[in-house]
Every structure is written in C-alpha cells, then in structure tokens.
Amino acid sequence: MSSSISRRTVLRGGLGGLAALAAAPVLASCSGSSEGGDGDDAAASASAAASVLPNYIPYQGVQPDITGEGGIPNVFFAYPADPQPATTEKPGDGSPISASMGTFAPIPPTADRNPYWAELNERVGSELQLSITPGADYPQRFATAVAGDNLGDIFNVDGALSQLPQFLEAKCQDLTEFLAGDAIADYPFLANLPTDSWRGTVFNGRLYGLPVQRGITGSQIIFTRDDLFEARGVDPSFGSLDEFLQLCRDMTDTQANVWALTEVPFVVLQAMAGIQNEWMADGGGSFTHALEVPEQKDALEFGRKLVEEDLVHPDGVGGANADAKAWFSQGSAAVIEDTYTAVAGFFARNTIGDAYRLGLQVAPGPDGEPAPMWQGMPNNSFTSLAQADPDRIRMLLKVLDWLAAPFGTEEHLFRSYGIEGVTFEFDGTEPVLNQDGLAYTANGAFPVEYLVDAPKETYFPGMPDVAQAVYDHQAIAVPASSLTAAWGLYSETQGRVGGQLSTMLTDARNGILLGREPVDSWDDTVAQWRSGGGDDIRAEYEEAYAALES
To answer: Mind giving me the DSSP string for 201-264?
Structure first.
C-alpha cells in the first residue's frame, strides 16, 4: 500500500495496488467528510445546525486536472495557463481596514517598503493596516488586544481564549444574517469553502467567523525514503504491525548511526490499532476519548517495543524533535510520521538529486484494510469581525471574499506570487518567486492567508507525478479516515486546561515509550486525566452535541 515518487516520475508499481484497494471495503469514520455534503455519526448531529451554515457552492471557473471528492482536494498538475480575473471591481470602499494575525513565516517589510503590499492595497481598494505578530507570540498579543478592546476590524481568533463564546457574542459581529444559507451567494469565493470548515465557526447557534480552511492536509501519515529502502533491498510497504516491525528492523543499523524511525509514529500506530480520531460518539451521544479505549495500551506496547529494539533515532523520543525532518532528509532515518503539507518541504531538502524518492504509505488497520487515518482539523483557525454597521460588514466581507479567490484565478495568482517581473517570473505556466518575491511576500506566505484562505489544492510546481501520487494515496486513506466527533463543538474546560492535560498525557506516554514506566501505568494516567478535567470536557461536549440534535 505505497506510492513512491521522485521529482520526475513515479518509479514504483505501487500505484496500481492503490487503485485496486480503492474498491475494497473501508472502515467507517466517526464523522463526516470534509466536503460540503452531509456526513454520518458526529457530523450528522451538526446537520441540525444547518440553518446557520452557509450553503456550499463550489467555484466552477477553473477546472482542476482531477476533481477531488469526499474531502480529497482538487489536483492541478501545473498552474493553469493565462489566469483570468474572477472579479470586476475593487472590494474595498477606500477606507482603511485594520487587521491582526500571526504568522509562522518571516514578517514581510511594511507597505511603504514593500511593492507587493502596496499593490495589494491598490487592488483591494482600501489600505490594509496589518498588525503581524510571530505565531508563537500571537496568543499573548490577542489576549492583550481583547483586554484593551483594541482588536481592529478583522482578527484571527485565538481559539484557546477563556470564555470564547461569551467574547464572540459581546465583541464580534454575528455573521449569520450575512452568510447563512443562500446569503453566502453574495460572496462566491467564501461559498467555495466546504461545510465542515464553517462548523468550526458556529458558537451558541450563531455564525461568528470565517474559516481559515485546511481540509485534510494536516492529517498524519507515514512517509518513507524509498531510495534508501531499495538500496537495502527492503519493501517499504507493510500490511500489518508485524510487517512494519520487521521492516524497521531491516532498515536499522545502529553501528552506522542509521535508524528506521525518526520518532515513534504514535498517531499512525493508534490508527493501526483501530482507534478512531480522539473523541468518538456512540449512537446515544456518549463520548469516549481515544486514550480510554483498551487498544490504546496496545499502541503504547508496540511503540515501546520500537524504542526497546533501538529502531528509533535516540533523540527521537521525549524531545522537541525539531531535527526529525533533517534526519529523514539526510538519511539517518528512513521512516517519518508527518502531514501531507510536508511533501514540498521534503523535496526542498533533497540534496541527492534525481535519486531521491519519497514514499507515502497507506497504514493497515487490524483487519488489513486501510486504517482509520486521523484527519487533521478542517481549519487552521478562524477569523472574526468587530461589530459594525451592516454596510461596513458587507464591505469587509467583500474584501475577505476577494482574498479567498480560488487557485487558478488571476486574484489568487497575485495574492500568492505578486507582480510579474517584480516578485515572480513565469517558467512556462509555473509562477516562480524571485529573491524580491521571497522577501516581500514572506516566502510566498503573506499573512492575509491567516485571515481567510481558498481551499487547499494538491499542486507541486514542476512535479505532476508528485501531485498524482499524493492523490492516489488520499483516494485510499481518506475514505477510511476519521474526524474527531468534537469538531464544531465547544468545551470551556478544554480551552482552560486542555493544554495542561495534553502536556501531562505526552509526558506519561513518553515515560512508557522510554521504558521508565510500565504500560499498565496508563490506567493511572487516564484516571488523572479524567479527574483533572477530562470528564468535564466530555460532559460539555456531550451537552453541546445533544443541543445540536435537539
């Protein structure tokens, strides 16, 4: 169940196997798809709130090479030739617009020193006065702005803010009348955002934000360095936990400082044990967390065995693991757990040229069928607007709609690459940032993408084989995948103590993986989690779930 890709061509025969598996029975997910249709289980309850959700109206102006369905992104093998404008007028009204967001890219030069930003203001028709903060510092910046009532017109919301629903109701614009149902048609690019993303912006039965959509791109999967596997004569695909253990043994040579794994791939191990994604809801609306099910200790036992047998990089358990991608790229480890978003970075780190081959593995579940891949959250975050008169809200929504223009439009080309001849050049149909573009657009990630974003597509410039292989992997993994049943629900306790509980659980898990504590100590950890807030989080989610069904 693998797909191996290089810069130029698919080099293995694995894609045929993937296509055959697409017709095989798959495990049911605990929630719905990431696209606009109704889902099952947890997502079915969310359909009760459909009256406040915008209708999903896919944009048809640019046709992808492969149309994604059921949560799979659209695929483009190349940037569409001759991108055309999708709008006819500037969305702004000439008044300044203040906005705040964090960014994990370098902070770009200000508009007076940045021709891209200056041109953005011109095209929008209003001056965008952006307050940009390094991502790690943004929660504190946001809390300070909330306390000082100094948020600006548009702001990315820190979802961990205490009493978030109360804040939204008191200070933020209720967008229900502007966007719910057919009203979204006034904003065609916002209407192009899938329904599951909007569920993350509903609080107290009202719509209080716009999603910064990511879809399934944040889902954790197994990547392999297939060139390293071939050099050792080892098949990188695996059909069971036992086969995975053996290939890790075959790829480890501690005397040569080579290990199979960068770290214990614990998210995938849980899926391989048959565990659904974090919170699961039964037919009666009772919630169970993944950490509570018996199979959790099976995953811990297996992960512990990987460490005991020295199959994991010695710095790969219990640390920050900031070097994991480097170990994988340099060849000191051949297997890594990461997200679909990591693919481009893996190729960017390639130092061996065309010999480099990346494999995407479909992990098997207990029955040998594709495991319930844990979907990444549909949204990175969400954005709210300060309360204002209806005309100004409509204008701000027009600006945000313009910023959400889909891939392949002239507006998207400009937002992502800037000005031809100034910040980018064309290589055929492919836009390529130049050195000024890398500086002015913050490496192609100008932070308005943290106010609103178009749906994420599968596109790797100059590497159509990579786009095909990612799609082929998703065609197998996504139908079997699971989304937490808590998506679109709010828990005050989770916002207040969730971070502390997560740290406690991580420390306990690492203690077991490293052999410092027995696997059975997990029972005490679960009890500590429950008494420390887990049961309260469960009750709040169950109450929110029941309210959606009533």
So the answer is: TEETTEE--EEEE-TTTT-EEEEEEHHHHHHHT-----SSHHHHHHHHHHT-BGGGTBEEESS-
Give the whole-angstrom CA distance, residue 43 versus residue 37: 10
**Distance, CA of 421 to CA of 419 (rounded, Å):** 6
For 361, residues 6+ apart whose C-beta sits below 8 A from its C-beta are 1, 2, 221, 222, 223, 224, 236, 237, 238
Long-range contacts formed by 299-302: CB under 8 A, 24+ apart: 299/266, 299/269, 299/270, 299/272, 299/273, 299/275, 300/509, 300/512, 300/513, 300/519, 300/522, 301/519, 302/241, 302/245, 302/269, 302/273
- Average pLDDT (32-57) is 53
Minimal CA–CA distance to 5: which of 328, 233, 223? 223
Q: Mean pLDDT over residues 179-206, rounded?
A: 96
β partners of residue 382: 157, 211
Give the model confidence (pLDDT) of 284-324 as tens digits.
999 999 999 999 999 999 999 999 999 999 999 876 566 89
pLDDT above 60: residue 541: yes
Report which of 50, 57, 12 is spatially closest to residue 548, judged by C-alpha positions: 50
User: What is residue 272's DSSP assignment?
Assistant: H
Q: How far is CA 540 from the centre of its chain?
A: 25
Q: Which residues pair with 384 in a beta bridge?
A: 155
**In terms of Cα–Cα distance, which of 291, 342, 310, 347 is closest to 504?**
291
Each residue's pLDDT tens digit, 366-376: 999 999 999 99
Strand 154-157 relative to strand 379-385, pairing: antiparallel
Percent of the chain with pLDDT over 70: 90
Q: What pLDDT was estimated at residue 6?
A: 52
Distance of CA 187 to the CA centre of its chain: 24
Torsion of CA 356, 214, 380, 271, to 10 degrees: -70
DSSP assignment of 148-179: TT---SEEEE-TT-TTHHHHHHHHB---HHHH
Cβ distance 358 to 470 under 8 Å? Answer: no
**pLDDT level of residue 50 (50, 70, 90 thresholds):** low
Q: CA angle 82-84-88, nearest 5°?
A: 160
Q: What is the pLDDT of residues 226-270, one digit of tens each?
A: 999 999 999 999 999 999 999 999 999 999 999 999 999 999 999
pLDDT at 548: 81
Rounded-to-integer distance, Cα 314 and Cα 307, Å: 8
Angle at 489 between CA 487 and CA 494, to 5 degrees: 95
Contact 132, 103 (CB under 8 A): yes
**Helices 241-250 and 295-308, axial angle in degrees (round to 10):** 10
Give CA angle at 351 (350, 352), nearest 5°. Answer: 100
pLDDT band at residue 37 under the 50/70/90 scheme? very low
The 3-state DSSP class for residue 4 equals strand
Q: For residue 233, what are the contacts with CB-CB under 8 A and spacing of at least 6?
A: none
- Is it the case that residue 41 has pLDDT exceeding 70? no
Among the listed residues 383, 57, 375, the one whose alpha carbon sits nearest the alpha carbon of residue 208:
383
Q: What distance in Å separates the CA atoms of residue 283 and residue 42, rounded to the nearest whole number?
A: 9
